[in-house]
Design goal:
The protein is mostly beta strands and 124 residues long.
């Protein structure tokens, strides 16, 4: 069982930045694919970005050029740097982990473990 704990959410003005962190409770963190999803009120959970265990990254079109995912395997942590934030980015952001050999990185069903979520609110 892997526990994921997100942090770093908050309230920010449009155009601002936030960095989310997700700490994982596993000694084999480096073998997990990690993803970030978000869910706004009344909407389905949507893919934001993912990083494979080998470091390949995948971004939703809506965040390309503004968001950056990174991982630090020495700290069992994945980060989401969010720049040029827009009101449409307002959502609860969830961290997810998967040990699957074959992945569809933008599919929530590919991930076995989820964090509790952290709220990001972008004011206009």
């Amino acid at each position: 069982q892997v526990q994921l704990v997100e942090s770093g959410g908050g309230l920010v003005q449009a155009g601002g930045s936030l960095r989310l962190s997700c700490a994982a409770s596993t000694r084999t963190f480096s073998t997990y694919h990690m993803g970030w999803f978000r869910q706004a009120p009344g909407k389905e959970r949507e893919f934001v970005v993912a990083v494979s265990w080998s470091g390949n990254t995948y971004y939703a079109d809506s965040v390309k050029g503004r968001f950056t995912i990174s991982r630090d395997n020495t700290k069992n942590t994945v980060y989401l740097q969010m720049n040029s934030l827009k009101p449409d980015d307002t959502a609860v952001y969830y961290c997810a982990a998967s040990a699957r050999a074959t992945m569809t990185f933008n599919a929530p069903g590919s991930y076995a473990y989820w964090g509790q979520g952290t709220q990001v609110t972008v004011s206009s």
